[in-house]
Every structure is written in structure tokens, then in C-alpha cells.
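Researcher: Structure for this, please.
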Amino acid sequence: GGDLLTEYKCIVLQTGDVLTEDDVVILQEMQAAQERPKPPVVNAVAIGCTEKGSVMALALSNDFLVLREAPRDGTPAVRQLPWFKEPVKRVAAMDVSPSLDWLLCVTHDCTVCLVPIQALCSSHTASLPH
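Model: Predicted structure, C-alpha cell format:
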């Protein structure tokens, strides 16, 4: 948090300049900020809804899919699934089948992947390892 202008710092150095203690502190803060993990970004979303319930799928920038199945007469289930790490295998587009049973994902290299939503999210299915 804080003022937007104080969030970003810049040091202009020329050949022969000597760093002051303040410059060193600023450089250390800048390096620490670059090393902090960034929260994942949602790259793609798919939502399906029928009389039996709803499904939402998120493809995240940290190479995970998040599935949320919410049956009308049951408890919602959320699963986080590891996805391919290669940039060309990131999800470019996805959609939920009309039956809410499948998630179709198309990657940047045009690979088509089918994810079995019901099998992964049903309450009697064990959680997948992270």
C-alpha cells in the first residue's frame, strides 16, 4: 500500500557515480520487490449452468486450473488441478459442455484437452495431489 508515487523508485547513475547509503537501500527494496511472488492472474474463464447446478473453471497464470462444481441439491466442490508448464500449452480458450460433465480446453499450440469435471469434483472422489 501507500502512495502510488512512492511505490516506484528510480536511481539514475552515470559512470563514476558513487552510491550513497540511500541509493543502496532503494536498490535493495527494488530487488526485494522483484523477488516477491506475484499472485496468479486469470487467463481464461468458462461457466456453465443448468437445472442440475453450475460449473465454473478458471485457467490461472501459475499453471493451475481451478474447477468449482455447485450442484443444486448438494455441497459445492472446488478442485485445483496442475496444468502444463510450457507456455504453448497454456489455455487459450475453454468452455463447459452443456451437460456440465466436461471442460474443453484449447491451448496456444492448438492442442484440445478434455477435462472430466464430474469425475474430478464429485464428493466421493479423493482430492488430487497439489
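Researcher: Any notable elements?
Model: The radius of gyration is 22 Å. Residues 21-35 form the longest helix (15 residues).
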